[in-house]
Amino acid sequence: MELHAREFACGDASTFQGSERDIIFISMVADPENCHPLSGNAAEQRFNVAASRARDRMYLIRSVTLDHLSQKDVRRTLLEYFSKP
């Protein structure tokens, strides 16, 4: 099966702790009208693990903009990173 041959895997950040993939897709899909801030060490660690697993490319799929996220939200930091060319 091609998915197996390509080592395709789906999971949260803890699934990929200690491993890398050529390509990582990160989902940041949330209700823009009801987007509660994610903050604190646990949230920072989760996003750090997710963002540091890609060897070649990382894609961000999102439904929120910077306007929806508070300054303290760790998702904002990731979105700001992706917004810079």
Notes on the structure:
- It comes from Pseudomonas frederiksbergensis.
- This is DNA2/NAM7 helicase-like C-terminal domain-containing protein.
- Residues 13-61 form the DNA2/NAM7 helicase-like C-terminal domain.
- Helix content is 29%, strand content 20%.
- It is of the alpha+beta class.
- It has one domain (2-83): P-loop containing nucleotide triphosphate hydrolases (Rossmann fold, 3-Layer(aba) Sandwich).
- Strands 1-2 form a two-stranded parallel sheet.
- The mean pLDDT is 87.
Q: What's the layout of helices and strands?
A:
Elements: H1 2-5, E1 21-28, H2 41-51, E2 54-62, H3 74-83
Parallel strand pairs: 1-2
List keywords for this structure.
alpha+beta; P-loop_NTPase; 85 residues; 29% helix; DNA2/NAM7-like_C; elongated; 2 strands
